[in-house]
Amino acid sequence: MDEEQDESNYGLKDCFDALKDQSTIFRASIKGELDYIEKHFPEKKDIFSDFLWRNIQYYPISEQIRWLKDLSNFGKVYKKEDFVEVKLDIADLRDEKAITDAVMQFVKERLPDSEEYSYVINISLGSNETQVAWHILSQSGCLPSNIRFIKTYDDKKDDTSTRFKPFTIRETETKLIETLSSNLSLYPETQSPKRALADKLMKSYLESGFSVLILGDRGIGKTSLIERHKENKRFVEANCASFAEDTMAESDLFGYIKGAFTGASSDKNGLIKEAENGILFLDEVHRLSERVQSKLLTAFRTNENNELSIRKVGATVNEKVKNVRLVFASNLSIDELKEKLLPDFYDRIVQHVIKLPSLDETKEDIEKDWEQVWKQLKFEKDPETPKEKPLISWLSKQPLKGNYRDLQRIAMYYHIYQVFDDETRAMIPQKTPLTFAKAQFQEFISYEPKREKLFSKGKTYEEMNAEYHKKLEEWAIRTYNTRANAALQLGVSEKTLNNWKNKK
């Protein structure tokens, strides 16, 4: 028990002093303490019992539950059999990941997301790490939609004359991160009208429920834009360039059933199913083969309930997936996408389009962009962002074709010079961080990918024909991922593809 309590006015000080002497015997056992008080201070047992709630947090969990069921007013409101004790396998209550994993499993098994049920979670209970876990799960969309968080307060800010005050119960945010960041933007305090428009369009387009296509140069922050606006929705992303072949793309996107192929030892949900009631983000969408585009086109047709219909690899029936918001991204132009994508698939993904401006188009924000990149790199030394006028002036004139990646490289060049020792600096022609960064950047500057022309000038018909077939072979391999798939789609043999490749 806590000997610092101000309960002397109730004549309990002698009770607490006696219990303190007996603490090694009772080990914070409520029954043991009550029995002791009843035997030695019978006239004070009821008062002592009334004060138990003020110290309940000092007892073991098992004793807290016993107090709740047997001594509190719980029984006046609920039946004892309504209380279910669930033990989670958490070894360390300071391990956020272990807590989050255990609670998420409990939620999946015990808290169905149904209008029939409502849930109230007192996040004041447990460790600080437990509160973090609840907020993370809520913000990630992993909790039922009709859940509420409460906190209990022993509020002393208005009256500090006594240590304990009656508890106040307040409802608190279930989307705390979203609330705190509601005034933030991907482009904070931007001076660029193009950036401001892109940010506002993203918010409006996501709320519309139609698919969104984000276009922009490499390194411009397409993923960052959608992550900024995902709010409390579940967010599932995939880079379509990572699919080595069609079978991998299909199993990852649609999932599979046990035994569908070698290694499929159990059923697995695909990314589309994982994105239910959330956002599915497919980056580099132009890298999908026509076969996968066709399957996605079928899956992305919604019914009157806004449900998608997917079929797992190896399954014989379709499965409904609810409320998936589709977002795509590409660094190609609209004209190039028309060439790459099937017409129907193109129409499906090009509903709302956002074009992110490059850094070359938003030089009015270059100083803020530089500061943001410098802070994100989190250099251990020299944490202050360098902002001398010659540096900012030079940055504003650079063709940053790699966008933020170019700024990152310049920051790394600048910073590394600052940590060189004297011997290293003496061996380098440049004598300041800025001149070193300039030299390094000019030598290794990013390039803008060249769009090849189909034919070279001054060639004969035979040479042009060979060049055409060679490029057709290369295009087919890129598009259909494997030589076998490419030959199948073009209606030729793999040997013919090899001939095209090697013909001069």
Characteristics of this structure?
504 residues, 5-stranded parallel beta sheet, alpha/beta, single chain, 5 domains, 11% strand, disordered N terminus
Going by helix content, strand content and strand pairing, the class is: alpha/beta
Cα separation of the termini: 90 Å
The low-confidence runs, each spanning 5 or more residues with pLDDT under 50, are: 1-9, 180-185
Strand order across the largest sheet? 5-8-11-4-12
Shape: extended
Which architecture name of the largest domain does CATH use? Answer: 3-Layer(aba) Sandwich
Number of helical stretches of at least 4 residues: 24
Fill in the CATH topology of the largest domain.
Answer: Rossmann fold
Structure report:
The chain is α/β, with parallel strands linked by helices. The protein folds into five domains: 1-81, no CATH class; 86-183, no CATH class; 193-357, P-loop containing nucleotide triphosphate hydrolases (Rossmann fold, 3-Layer(aba) Sandwich), CATH 3.40.50; 360-443, no CATH class; 461-502. The protein has helices at 13-21, 23-26, 30-40, 45-50, 61-70, 74-77, 96-110, 128-139, 176-180, 193-208, 222-228, 246-254, 271-274, 290-299, 334-340, 343-349, 366-377, 389-396, 404-419, 422-426, 433-443, 461-480, 483-490, 494-502; strands spanning 119-122, 147-153, 168-172, 212-215, 234-239, 255-256, 268-269, 278-283, 307-310, 319-322, 324-330, 352-355. It has a five-stranded parallel sheet. Strands 1-2-3 form a three-stranded mixed sheet, with no helix packed on it. It has a two-stranded antiparallel sheet with strand order 6-7. Helix 8 (128-139) links the parallel strand 1 and strand 2.
